[in-house]
Specification:
The protein has about 300 residues and is an alpha+beta fold. It has two domains: about 160 residues, no CATH class; about 120 residues, Glucose Permease (Domain IIA), CATH 2.70.70.10. The chain is built from six helices and 13 strands. The strands form three sheets. Strands 1, 4, 6, 7, 8, 10, 12 and 13 form an eight-stranded antiparallel beta sheet that branches. The longest helix is centred in the N-terminal third of the chain and has 37 residues. The chain is elongated.
């Protein structure tokens, strides 16, 4: 998930808030344990796993559950198991990204830009911080209705955790760290350099990726196209707004494949490499801008360097 950066590494909470992630991981683990407890309880009362064949007469004699209730509880338990498994995979991805985010030192931006991004990200929610209320233990209640209520409680709890994970996954999709060219070598890096035309010292606000004309340029993250056309000095340029203060810029294109207002997905084709504008040869000039300021794209690309299909 993306994060707008402040002067301290401990302030990387706007998009990928670590405390929220820890809460999600903790709750997910609790849900998994509760689901296991339900499974054990159901087995104790004669409600076994879906792989077991049930005989109606035997079930009714051995437990207070009817065959219909057994079928419903089996289906509910199987659904919870599948959801917990999917959620665990999501959390693994988010946790791995969070660890890389902790280890990466990103360029600071003004505090007011961070505050502004936080305001946009906020859902205007509040209230005291209280521990979650656990679902009632099923092994103390052999009553079928109570067991059903407990499964409903688990399902509702899991839904809340899934919603939180989905929000963080959406933030991760909008984090501009995917390499915009599948192939190509790094040319001029971010920072001060000798200008290729004047040979005087100048600031380069992005990084150049050298590749043949026509090479596909891909979106570094999901977002909305806010510019698709000529830009002074940049030639044919695409800009994408990823929310929370993040904008990426793709310049010198030979061809633009998107239009203003279009929503794009991570690594979607948006343009083709060219040499339009102030350029000495075919390449992509790639910028990451946070809160209106250009930052080093390498810091962001490094976060996804190990994800081949990110």
């Amino acid at each position: 998930m993306a994060s707008v950066v402040s002067r301290s590494k401990n302030d990387l909470y706007v998009v990928m808030r670590r405390s929220a992630l820890r809460a999600i991981v903790g709750t997910a683990c609790s849900v998994a344990v509760l689901a296991l407890a339900v499974g054990l309880a159901l087995a104790r009362y004669g409600v076994q796993t879906p792989r077991v064949h049930y005989e109606s007469a035997r079930t009714s004699a051995a437990s207070p559950y009817t065959s219909g209730e057994v079928a419903r509880l089996q289906a509910a338990n199987a659904s919870l198991d599948a959801r917990v498994e999917r959620l665990a995979a999501q959390l693994d991805t988010l946790s791995a990204f969070d660890q890389r985010l902790r280890a990466q030192s990103l360029r600071a931006i003004p505090t007011n830009a961070v505050a502004s991004a936080r305001t946009r990200y906020s859902n205007a929610a509040g209230g005291p911080e209280l521990p979650p209320r656990p679902c009632q233990a099923t092994d103390a209640h052999p009553d079928p209705q109570i067991t059903c209520d407990n499964l409903d409680c688990l399902a509702a709890t899991l839904a809340a955790v899934e919603q939180g994970a989905a929000q963080h996954e959406a933030a991760l999709e909008a984090f501009p760290g995917r390499r915009p060219l599948a192939l190509g070598r790094t040319g001029s890096p971010f920072g001060n350099r000798l200008d290729p035309f004047t040979r005087h010292l100048s600031f380069h606000p992005g990084m150049d990726l050298v590749a043949p004309t026509g090479t596909s340029i891909l979106a570094a993250a999901g977002g909305r196209v806010i510019h698709a056309g000529r830009m002074p000095g940049y030639g044919n340029t695409v800009e994408i707004d990823h929310g929370n203060g993040f904008i990426t810029r793709y310049a010198h294109a030979s061809k633009i494949e998107v239009r203003v207002g279009q929503r794009v997905q991570p690594r979607e084709l948006i343009a083709e490499v060219g040499s339009t504008g102030r350029s000495t040869g075919p390449h992509l000039h790639f910028e990451v801008r946070v809160g209106g300021q250009a930052v080093n794209p390498d810091d962001y690309l490094a976060l996804f360097a190990t994800d081949a299909d990110a």
